[in-house]
Amino acid sequence: MRKYKGHTKLVVKPGSTEEVSKVLKYCNDNMLAAVPQGGNSGLVGGSVPVFDEIVINMSRMNKIRDFDEVSGTLVVDAGCILEVADHFLAEKNYIFPLDLGAKGSCQIGGNVATNAGGLRLLRYGSLHGNVLGIEAVLPDGTVMDDLSRLRKNNTGYDIKQLFIGGEGTIGIITGVSIQCPQRSKAGNVAFFGLENFEKVQQAFRAAKGQLSEILSAFELMDGQSQDLVHRVTDKKRPLEGQHPFYCLIETSGSNPDHDSEKLESFLENVMGEEIVSDGVLAQDETQIQSLWSWREGIPECLGHWGGVYKYDLSIPLPELYKLVDDTRERLTSAGLIGDDEKHPVVGVVGYGHMGDSNLHLNVATRRFDKEVENKLEPFVYEWIAKRNGSISAEHGLGLAKKAFIEYSRSKTMIRLMKQIKELYDPNGIMNPYKYI
Amino acid sequence: MSTALKILVPIKRVIDYAIKPRVNSARTAIETAGVKHSMNPFDELSIEAAVRMRERGTPAVTDILALSVGPPKCVDVLRTAMAMGADRSIHVEISDAEVKEKGELEPLGVAKLLKSVVEKEQRNLVILGKQSIDDDSNQTGQMLAGLLGWGQATQASKIEFEGDNVSVTREVDGGVETLRCPLPMVITTDLRLNEPRYASLPNIMKAKKNKLEKMTLQDFGVDEGRRLKTLKVEEPPARQGGGKVEDVDGMIKKLKELGAI
User: Which CATH number does the domain housing residue B117 bear?
Assistant: First the structure.
């Protein structure tokens, strides 16, 4: 990111829940601010110490505690790396219900604390539904052991939900129990080129209607995002010609023949109806991975020139892409976009989880530039507020979006949130200066 | 006017390259049930090479015939080959039961079969993967050239035509070697030859109309008897993790302990 720089004099690496409890109790008694840190792969600066906060790094708490092969319930330490857990589950034919580009470094505790969305949300739902229990340490050192393994438990307020997406502001998650679905035996990936955003929506409707329960991802990438990936990686493009929009569709199911049959009739339909202009279907696992790399590789490639302004937004589907057009036009008319060093902006691209109405608006720049920022903010937030969207769909608030929460939440909601914060963290030591 | 090419591309359905193979519980073979299968990656290169020859146009390509020997599912990889550009295909079917009972065909059996196909279908160029990634034999191409009495160029990284001569660059230890050979000939492909294309949707649809002939080993009257017997299949020994030493003295001590110095 290169956007945030931490300022801390002390990092502690507790090895157990008891140690986390002792550290927090000491901090609370002595009014010392603390910031929990997982894989540090967040995009809004939530895990970065702003001034002199003590970093509580969770990487030593990285064990898989327990797995029930019958129910599929996994219990892990908060510092367990997502990919490690997913590999462990793969051996047992299960799958972690969350997947995202940073899987090799992000930690499950951080994923839960930020309520990360990612690539499998369309199929398996959000962490609010999948997390069964949480073990956390409150700012005064109290260990909150709510590591339930039950799918159903209607006994009182569901306090753990406050920690999911709480971004470490009311306590540190130290353990998580999560329900994991059966891993699909059959997977297919198709990659389409489409003429306009109207057709993208038609393709999405067709995919939902015809692939229904086997559809596991529907990702959108605009032409410019793919041009930039191509410029950086110089890999062979999946499609011959160039198209204004691209979609990646993934299916997963239990019976390869059944899936292929469904997929084939879907593909025939969208080609025949001229909803998609061109497309390819991966013939093997290597092709599946390389098609995914055109989607997953976007964030990394955009960072190639310097910094990236990233906006992660929920927008009603019909207008999802209009924001990219509007933003591009705004920066172009201000003369900020260009191919040489004089222009701070390399390009404005849009991509994201079409299936979740979640757009990533990214502005790739050669350097962070105040003029660009002034053009973007609050313009983007006002645009979103007008359409009742969310200014942060899956990345959270952290440091970056704290000031803009009122574009998505009412005064009453913000007041209620502040009450929670004061109740759990009266001294304000937990991850201060962020969130709300 | 150079001779028009009639190309045969034999392909094999193998466990997907990206899947980690596992030894079956009886330790007699690799577990294949319920495991994703795809076209042997070297064979994708062969198809791509053949299709590019046709796209280049000189010499003209009369037709590209893909062929696969094996269980019914091999049809999938033949469909892929046709979606990539093969004109038609032959599936020499061996039932799952027969594969289970006798094992897969051995390279010599396949080479004999291919010889018979080359003669029946009057082929003058055979392009095949240098090896299949499941048994890694790297023999079929060579045996076929021997049986046919044709020239062969193995592990091709570049193929060029000069009239009726084919010039093939191959990667050898310490550099590259260029061979020139007249048609008919056998070429086996290596990884750097090309980057295979994706099967596009329009081509997948079109390929459904291409001819896919079902045949059996008996149709070719080939003695496909197995000569090899697999006694045991084992996983390679697990890698031992390395250790850290404090300083140079520690390293020297460790090396002495291990008898390395």
Answer: 3.40.50.620
